[in-house]
C-alpha cells in the first residue's frame, strides 16, 4: 500500500502538482517512523524473552542467542546506515543547519540522484541489503520455504527486467532514486528501514521458536515413577510408568531396571515396567534412566520405588488426571477392595470432597497447596483410617484465543470476514470448560498509521468488520488486549494473535 502511494505521488510530481502532494510524503514518512518504533519495541521484548530462556538453559539456548545477537547487530548497523543517508541527503539540500522534522527542499530532484547514484551510495545500500538478506536466509531451514520467500520478496534488490530489447539497463538504485524528489527519497529509505525491522522481528521470532519447540520448562531433571496404584491384589499384575519428568517426548530415554534389564516398551516417552505379583509384602525396585541432554551428553539418573502386594486394601485415583484444578468439579473414585461403598468414606483438606452416588467430586480451594484425601473404612468396632493420598492443586490453565480455529498465521480474507468473533479454546485439557472472551482490540496499519478498534464482547464490532473489508493481500492484522473469564471468575489476559491476509 505504501509502495503504491509512493508511485502515485511520484507520478503526480511529474506533472507539477502543488506542495500538498509533497506534504503527503511527509505524512507517510511520519507513519513509517511510528511503525519502525513499534517493531523496535517488539524486537526488544523478544530479545528479553531470549535472555530469560538463556538464563534457564544456557547449554541449549546459547547458539540461538548468539545468532539472534548477530541479527540484532546487523539490523542496527543497516538501519543506522539508512539514517546516515537520510541526514546526508537533507543536509546537502538544506545546508548545515538542516532540520529533519522540517525539510525545506522537499521538491529537490538533484540531490537524491547525486548522492545515491552518482556518488555510489545507492549501490552501497543495495549491497548492504544483499548481505543482510543472505545472513537472514542462512538462519532459516530450507523446509521453511514460506518464510524464506517472504524475506526474499521484502528485501528484493534485483534490477528490473527489460520489457523489450531496446529498454535501458536500469539498476535497482537508479529505479529507486533517479528523478525522485528529496522527500520521496527520504520516505523510500524509511520504508526500507521498516522492512529491515520487520525482517528482524520475523527471524528473531523464528530463532526463538526453534529452541522453544524443544526447550525445557523447568530447571531440574529428575527420574520419576508413576503407577495407577501402589497397592494390588495377589495374583494381579503390577504396572508402572518410568519416565524423566518434563522430558522431550520425541525421544525415548534408555531405562535399565535392576531386576529385569532394559525396558523396551514405551508410551509417550515413558517406559512401561511390568512385574508379576507373586508374593505378599513390599517389593522394592529401581534402576538407571539415561537421557541425552541438548548438548549431546548422556546423563544417568538413578531411581527407586516400591509397591505393596497385599490382601484387600484401598485404592484412590483421580478419574481424569493426577491433579485437582481450582474452580471446577474434579471427579474422584474412592474404593477399598473388601468393603462395600456404603462402608467407605473420604474427606479432604484444602477444599471439599462431595459424594455423588458411589463417586466423589473434589472442589479444591487454594492452588499450589497440596490437598490430602483421607479414606476411612467401617470395621466392626467403628471407622478407621486406611490411607491418606496427596494431590497437587493447580489453577485452571489459560485458554488459547482463536479465530476460525486459527491462533495466528496466514488467513484468507473471506474466511476472516465470515467469522463472528474471537473464541477462547482449551486445547489439550480434559475438562469441558467454557471461557468467555470479554474484550479485545483489532489493529492494523492504514496509510502508514496504526488503527485500533475495540470490542467489549467476544463479537467483532461493526468498525472491526469494516476494517477487515479494507484489508489488502499480505497486510497484517493484530488481535490484542484479549481478555477472557472462565468458570473460576478470574479474568485472564491472553497473548496477542496476528494474521497475514493471503
UniProtKB/TrEMBL annotation:
Domain Gliding motility-associated protein GldM first immunoglobulin-like: 214-311
InterPro entries (UniProt xref): GldM_Ig-like-1, GldM_Ig-like-2, Motility-assoc_prot_GldM, Motility-assoc_prot_GldM_C, Motility-assoc_prot_GldM_N
Domain Gliding motility-associated protein GldM C-terminal, chain residue ranges per copy: 397-501
Residue ranges occupied by any Gliding motility-associated protein GldM N-terminal domain in the UniProt entry: 20-209
Gliding motility-associated protein GldM second immunoglobulin-like domain location: 314-394
Highest taxon in the source lineage: Bacteria
Name of this protein: Gliding motility protein GldM
Organism: Labilibaculum antarcticum
Lineage: Bacteria, Pseudomonadati, Bacteroidota, Bacteroidia, Marinilabiliales
